[in-house]
Design a protein that fits this description.
One of its GO terms (cellular component) is endoplasmic reticulum. This protein has 365 residues and is of the alpha/beta class. The protein has 14 helices and ten strands. 50% of the residues lie in helices and 13% in strands. The strands form two sheets. Strands 1-3-2-4-5 form a five-stranded mixed beta sheet. A five-stranded mixed beta sheet has the order 6-8-7-9-10. Helix 7 links the parallel strand 7 and strand 8 (201-207).
């Protein structure tokens, strides 16, 4: 009976802790205040002015606005006199009906101490919304901008960057007023971030409305237009793939020989050289007397390699030497050690280095 009661208490405590953790994560992950019938009048119409977006989850225009609205929320997070909020009208129909919402997104400003809103009719971007809130709320907040990994091209830098024969370059030709370009922007930034550690891959964009000569030269007639300029073809190839993060990542991996996932981490294929993998399997299977002969073959193969394969070949050589000196358990023990380090907080470049070693060692284990 006592054991049952203890077990019951443990489960209840665990459930409460999980719910609290989930609530904390939800609150900290979103700088826009999520409003409902329960909290609307506690957050709005009090001692702060409030900008409220009434939206529907399925609405295309709402999805397009979302990154700008989140940026707005982040920028005004510390403003003591303003609330940036949103209401899901699918979930809270009566609240949206109360404020005359008939289309999505509808953005309304509620002055301090008032539940009588003014409809926002301006442009739907973070900068314009911030200017409006600053005017209505008496604040002076600037939009927070995170450093970008997308290389911004101009007429002075285009040729230097794009026509560099040591780089594979993906270029987005865009226009600032283009809705599809705005929708693509957060995805394109993630692509650039995923490949930021690849020295010979560049993710770039060009304002083709401003630099129209380049748009004309490369046959750009609509926005966004994406072209890939590989090392061996600086005339440029049209990118006709999908426009999700995974589509772009798969394309770059295929064309540039990289092995990244959408988070920028190396995949299990990174560092693997097929010709050396074949020899390593022969090495592991060989008897003690034959191992040195196979090691010589590995040395010869590594000497023929170039570029990144040459760098990876040196890891194969070192691993083979350690295998000879430390025995067959070396690879398994070293993989476990590297995995423990990878699970700690380390720099992305260090994670790359250890992942390459771990991938190559897996052939020896």
């Amino acid at each position: 009976m006592e054991r049952s009661q203890i077990w019951s208490r443990t489960i209840r405590f665990g459930a409460i802790a999980f719910a609290f953790a989930l609530l904390f994560v939800s609150a900290s992950a979103d700088d826009v205040v999520v409003l409902s019938e329960d909290n609307f009048e506690k957050e709005v119409g009090q001692d702060k002015g409030a900008l409220v977006e009434f939206y529907a989850p399925w609405c295309g225009h709402c999805k397009k606005l979302a990154p700008d609205y989140e940026k707005l929320g982040s920028s005004f997070k510390k403003a003591k006199s303003v609330v940036i909020g949103k209401v899901d009208c699918d979930e809270h129909k009566s609240l949206c009906s109360k404020y005359g919402v008939s289309g999505y997104p509808t953005i309304q400003w509620f002055p301090k101490g008032s539940l009588e809103p003014k409809k926002y009719e301006g442009p739907r971007n973070a900068e314009a919304l911030a200017e409006y809130v600053n005017t209505e709320g008496g604040t002076n907040v600037k939009i927070a901008t995170a450093p970008s990994n997308v290389v911004v091209l101009t007429d002075e830098t285009f040729n230097e960057v794009v026509l560099d024969e040591t780089k594979d370059v993906l270029v987005e030709f865009y226009a600032p007023w283009c809705g599809h370009c705005k929708s693509l922007a957060p995805i394109y930034e993630k692509v650039a971030t995923a490949f930021k550690l690849e020295g010979d891959v560049v993710i770039a964009n060009l304002d083709a409305d401003k630099y129209r000569d380049f748009a004309e030269k490369y046959g750009v007639s609509g926005f966004p237009t994406l072209k890939f300029f590989p090392k061996n073809n600086k005339a440029g190839d049209a990118y006709e793939g999908g426009r999700d993060l995974d589509d772009f990542v798969a394309f770059i991996n295929e064309k540039s020989g990289t092995n990244r996932d959408g988070n920028g981490q190396l995949t299990s294929k990174a560092g693997i050289v097929e010709s050396l993998d074949t020899l390593v399997k022969e090495f592991v299977a060989a008897g003690d007397a034959e191992k040195k002969a196979v090691f010589t073959k590995i040395e010869e193969e590594v000497s023929k390699l170039k570029g990144s394969d040459s760098r990876h070949g040196k890891i194969y050589l070192k691993a083979t030497k350690n295998y000879l000196e430390k025995g067959s358990d070396y690879a398994k023990n070293e993989i476990q050690r590297l995995q423990r380090i990878l699970e700690k907080s380390i720099s992305p470049s260090k994670a790359d280095e250890l992942t390459l070693k771990k991938n190559i060692l897996s052939t020896y284990a």
